[in-house]
Amino acid sequence: MLLSLVLHTYSMRYVLPTALMMGTAPTYVLAWGAWRLLSTLLPARVYHEVDDRLYTLYQSMVLFFFENYTGVQIILYGDLPKNKENVVYISNHQCTVDWIIADMLAVRQNALGHVRYVLKDGLKWLPLYGWYFSQHGGVYVKRSAKFNERKMRNKLQAQIKAGTPMYLVIFPEGTRYNPELPKTIADSQSYADKAGLAVLKHVLTPRVKATHVAIDSMRTYLDAVYDITVAYEGTVDQKGQRKVAPSMTDFLCKECPRIHIYVDRIALKDIPEEQMYMRRWLHERFEIKDKLLIEFYDAKDSKRRNKFPGKCVRSKLSLKKTLPSLLFLSGLTVTMLLTESGRKLYVKTWLYGTLLGCLWVSVKA
């Protein structure tokens, strides 16, 4: 019985955060929907300004759980600017927490509301979230031959025309690096070898299409490209082999003590314009990532492991940035659920919001 109690307590470590993050989603969508209707006659810039503030509100609550609640240490290396910029953010990809890392960096630049993602097409069917991410400026893309360059380019250019601030997050590998899927890693390495590119150990061979379209479409609008390398401490077994990076559930169960984030800010003038040359450039950037991760995981000197080279800063996010959002959204949701009419509206938002959202993304996204 004691063991059952311990296991139950352990599971609650992620159940409560998950319940609050998902439970406040209908409340948030209703608030956003009301603003969307009110802003139909206003300039697009005004709509986006308030939308970004609403997005900041929700994502600040998410960061309360992923930073303050878990107590994780964020260790930053490199050159993250203090001021917000219009950027394309490219990163290695190994788990679902990678999406939160972009928020962690953006909030430290007061740019949390500007985060928008390039997402794989299947995620557009997520209840409520899939539709909203598209509304907030996210771009859904298909892989390989099904990639629709024109559609992505048109969406980005429309947002530029509206003056939408841009913190566009792209994972060029196209899928996660997972040590438990050796065939995926082997196929990626084989492709690089056949293409005459360096074979990478700790990252997959990057794909250039989405990155090229993003930078090419917004070159005159962007301030820089952020090249991000992420390493989760504690993801190596006793034999020195990489383990799977923590999932969101693992993370919320406080199974990742430290995240190491290396930031390299790249000026647009240093990035080639032609796709053929950008492909080579992007692969070279991932070679740099691979060397950083080899040093992090495989350094022969144990003192050099579990860290990136250079100076680092331990960055702690203040509760002032996150707790007010948690209290506001949870309080608003509880208030709605206290009345019968509120509960009905809540359920209908989940149901009809999901159905209408799926219908919308099937046509537009």
Fill in the keyword field for this structure.
single chain; 365 residues; alpha/beta; 8-stranded mixed beta sheet; 51% helix
The total beta strand count reads 8
The percent range for strand residues is 5-15%
* Low-confidence blocks of residues: none
The description of the largest β-sheet is: 8 strands, mixed
N- to C-terminal distance: 50 Å
State the helicity in percent bands.
Answer: 40-55%
Secondary-structure element order, N to C = HHHEEHEHEHEHHEHEHEHH
Mean pLDDT: 92
* Rg, Å, rounded: 21 Å
Number of helices: 12
Class inferred from helices and paired strands: alpha/beta
Strand order of the largest sheet: 4-3-5-2-6-7-1-8
Shape estimate: globular
Topology:
Elements: H1 2-23, H2 25-38, H3 44-69, E1 73-78, E2 87-91, H4 98-107, E3 115-120, H5 129-135, E4 139-141, H6 149-161, E5 167-170, H7 182-194, H8 209-218, E6 224-232, H9 248-252, E7 258-266, H10 275-298, E8 312-315, H11 319-337, H12 340-363
Parallel strand pairs: 1-7, 2-5, 2-6, 3-4, 3-5
Antiparallel strand pairs: 1-8, 6-7
Helix pairs in contact: 2-3, 2-12, 3-4, 3-11, 5-12, 6-8
Describe the structure in your own words.
By secondary structure, the protein is of the alpha/beta class. Helix content is 51%, strand content 13%. It is built from 12 helices and 8 strands. An 8-stranded mixed β-sheet has the order 4-3-5-2-6-7-1-8, with helices on both faces. Strand 3 (115-120), helix 5 and strand 4 form a beta-alpha-beta unit. Helix 2 (25-38) packs across helix 12 (340-363) and helix 3 (44-69) crosses helix 4 (98-107). It is globular, with a radius of gyration of 21 Å. The N and C termini lie far apart (50 Å).
